[in-house]
Structure to design on (305 residues):
């Protein structure tokens, strides 16, 4: 499809592209702290600014977080960015791409994963974030549209969630989603139009600025892909990152930070762009019917003896 494979820095002076805790290291030569990348996103989009219209990278990324069946501190993902495309085009592209991979690898478009039948035949079901949350919890995020109102709705519906380190509307609704909505999905399914607080790098919907042009591909309770039309307004981008840093001061543990160099790149002008990242370890575990990504990684991380 005309995409160019590229490589971007693993050692970064400012970590970004996701809400995650980074691994920190140090460079003697320049006497500076550096971070192992948590995502390739901001550097791939710098290439879009520089005139490359279709880029992708097969990469190792690193997140200093818990270890479970879906998470390993070092993991493989593919990210791509496509100038002059939006998230609707990406959904069509993704459906075609993944279904063709499933057919080639598994010999057909229906597979079994942990006793469940998963049918990758297009078209895949699409549902908005609002409709999914309303269906599974009874909460309408259009009404519960602030942290205070959301807490009241959670209490009213008798929903029990872990709130430690969950500061701000985005972290709170994300926890509701992860505990009460995502586990119910067999998929494959496109979950679309998330609240703007959930993804700082995504473009707002013109007809509803409280939502973003976004989707996730969900399969068997896994988030396989996260995607969106990219935010290319430098002022909006900086404001959203500043809000993240403000929440961090109130105790939000996983947050994004202001990257002034990236803001400068956006100010030169980034065309309308869309892109996504896919977890290769998760996809591999689904296609091979393995309970954990540990079973598809040769050397999963373990505590040393």
């Amino acid at each position: 499809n005309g995409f160019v494979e590229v490589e971007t820095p693993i050692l970064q002076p400012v970590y970004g592209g996701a809400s995650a805790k980074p691994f920190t290291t140090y460079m003697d030569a320049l006497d500076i702290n550096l971070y192992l990348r948590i995502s390739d996103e901001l550097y791939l989009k710098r290439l879009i600014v520089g005139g490359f219209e279709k880029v992708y990278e097969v990469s190792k990324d690193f997140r200093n977080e818990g270890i479970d069946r879906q998470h390993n501190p070092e993991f493989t993902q593919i990210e791509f960015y496509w100038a002059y495309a939006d998230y609707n085009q990406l959904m069509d592209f993704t459906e075609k791409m993944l279904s063709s991979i499933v057919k080639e690898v598994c010999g057909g478009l229906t597979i079994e994963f942990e006793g469940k039948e998963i049918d990758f035949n297009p078209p895949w079901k699409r549902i908005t974030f609002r409709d999914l949350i309303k269906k599974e919890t009874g909460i309408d995020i259009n009404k519960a549209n602030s942290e205070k109102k959301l807490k009241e709705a959670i209490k009213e519906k008798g929903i029990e969630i872990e709130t430690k380190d969950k500061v701000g509307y985005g972290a709170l609704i994300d926890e509701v989603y992860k505990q009460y909505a995502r586990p119910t999905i067999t998929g494959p399914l496109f979950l679309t139009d998330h609240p703007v607080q959930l993804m700082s790098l995504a473009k707002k919907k013109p007809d509803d600025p409280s939502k973003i042009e976004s989707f996730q591909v969900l399969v068997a309770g896994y988030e396989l892909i996260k995607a969106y039309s990219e935010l290319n307004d430098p002022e909006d981008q900086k404001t959203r990152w500043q809000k993240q840093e403000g929440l961090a001061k109130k105790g939000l543990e996983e947050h994004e930070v202001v990257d002034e160099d990236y803001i400068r790149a956006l100010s030169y002008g980034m065309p309308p762009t869309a892109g996504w990242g896919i977890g290769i370890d998760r996809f591999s575990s689904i296609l091979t019917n393995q309970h954990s990504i540990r079973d598809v990684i040769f050397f999963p991380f373990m505590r040393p003896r």
